[in-house]
TrEMBL record:
<dbReference type="InterPro" id="IPR036291">
    <property type="entry name" value="NAD(P)-bd_dom_sf"/>
</dbReference>
<keyword id="KW-0456">Lyase</keyword>
<dbReference type="InterPro" id="IPR016040">
    <property type="entry name" value="NAD(P)-bd_dom"/>
</dbReference>
<dbReference type="Pfam" id="PF16363">
    <property type="entry name" value="GDP_Man_Dehyd"/>
</dbReference>
<feature type="domain" description="NAD(P)-binding">
    <location>
        <begin position="5"/>
        <end position="331"/>
    </location>
</feature>
<protein>
    <recommendedName>
        <fullName>dTDP-glucose 4,6-dehydratase</fullName>
        <ecNumber>4.2.1.46</ecNumber>
    </recommendedName>
</protein>
<keyword id="KW-0520">NAD</keyword>
<dbReference type="GO" id="GO:0009225">
    <property type="term" value="P:nucleotide-sugar metabolic process"/>
</dbReference>
<dbReference type="InterPro" id="IPR005888">
    <property type="entry name" value="dTDP_Gluc_deHydtase"/>
</dbReference>
<dbReference type="GO" id="GO:0008460">
    <property type="term" value="F:dTDP-glucose 4,6-dehydratase activity"/>
</dbReference>
<comment type="similarity">
    <text>Belongs to the NAD(P)-dependent epimerase/dehydratase family. dTDP-glucose dehydratase subfamily.</text>
</comment>
Length: 361
């Protein structure tokens, strides 16, 4: 049975990845989920799998060298999938040091622990071991409005926020380990994810939640910043395929072929909600574009991101399966059906979940 160590598995993308892996492999794999449970880590995301014999949760900080080394010493880890990171740009602008600590030093701790566990006396590494570092397209900086301009794996790094700078730094560390030690790793750089379990500080769940509550829908600047949207289950599949088929030491860009302006996203959500809500639902009455409120633009706000996932398609056979019109409806339906989850998150009650077992956050 192959053992996966997943960092940040209680977060949005990590928890979706864990669900995907158990759905695909069932009892053929074992997953150890390591998460420190910051505000973005929510164990309610994993209630469906928490009682599985082949799933283990460990509350630990990826910056805690002793704790991480202990996990490797007590388990024969075959694969590391490294999601754990501070990821919200606005928060990074307010408190950059936290992002450097987690994203850079935490990645160094993970790399060192895996290297120590997997390295053989001759400097080579045990067969079949692999470390996958999950990163972002934001490390590439910003594109202009030219529809033919895209991010490729060869695009020079040009981060513009403390968040993207910290992720670029972590990418460089992984690259250095691959070059210096021939450490068995890959890097994936993905576009904006959306789907179930996303913390409602991010655009799509924030807009869904505020629209249903009749609250203002804040949009930065002129609303014309463009992002490439990737349905989270498609991303989980890409990560699995890179682990299985990716060439060692390579970077793969993972994009959704779904470029949208932020204002388009907001208007689409309003339109879909109006379609989905029954006429008798009182929430439908206040759903209109009048809720949109333009606010002062974010500092250093990148204008456009767009990934060309040509390499991952050519080498591995992955391509996005979920176009935005389908994915946004799936996402809205999930939030409709999991209203309690959203209430627990927005109220802060989720932070009390398992607090007696794992301690306060």
């Amino acid at each position: 049975m192959r053992t996966y160590l997943v960092t940040g598995g209680a977060g949005f993308i990590g928890s979706n990845y864990i669900h995907y892996m158990f759905k695909k492999y069932d009892n053929e794999i074992r997953i150890i989920n390591v998460d420190v449970l910051t505000y973005a880590g929510n164990l309610e995301n994993l209630r469906d799998v928490e009682d599985r014999d082949n799933y283990t949760f460990v509350k630990a900080d990826i910056c805690d060298r002793d704790a991480i080394n202990k996990i490797f010493e007590e388990n024969d880890i075959d694969r590391v999938v490294h999601f754990a990171a501070e990821s919200h740009v606005d928060r990074s602008i307010v408190n950059p040091e936290v992002f450097v600590q987690t994203n850079v030093l935490g990645t160094a701790t993970m790399l060192n622990a895996a290297k120590k566990a997997w390295e053989l006396p001759d400097g080579s590494f045990k067969e079949g071991k692999k470390f996958l570092h999950v990163s972002t397209d934001e490390v590439y900086g910003s594109l202009d409005d030219d529809p033919n301009a895209y991010f490729y794996e060869t695009t020079p790094y040009s981060p513009h926020s403390p968040y993207s700078a910290s992720k670029a730094s972590s990418d460089m560390l992984v690259k250095a380990y691959m070059d210096t030690y021939k450490f068995p790793a890959n890097i994936t750089n993905c576009s904006n994810n959306y789907g179930p379990y996303q913390f409602p500080e991010k655009l799509i769940p924030l807009i869904i939640n505020n629209a249903l509550a009749g609250k203002d829908l804040p949009v930065y600047g002129d609303g014309k910043n463009v992002r490439d949207w990737l349905f989270v289950e498609d991303h989980a599949k890409a990560i699995d395929m890179v682990q299985e088929k990716g060439r060692l030491f390579e970077t793969y860009n993972v994009g959704g072929h779904n470029e949208k302006q932020n204002i388009e996203i907001v208007k689409t959500i309003i339109d879909v909600l109006r379609e989905e809500l029954d006429d008798s639902d009182p929430r439908k009455a206040h759903l209109s574009y009048d809720l949109i409120k333009y606010v002062t633009d974010r500092k250093g706000h990148d204008r456009r991101y767009a990934i060309a996932p040509d390499k991952i398609k050519a080498e591995i056979g992955w391509e996005p399966e979920t176009m935005f019109n389908e994915g946004i409806r799936k996402t809205i339906k999930w939030y409709f059906e999991h209203h309690d989850w959203m209430e627990h998150v927005t109220s802060g009650d989720y932070e009390k979940y398992y607090s007696k077992m794992y301690g306060n956050k």
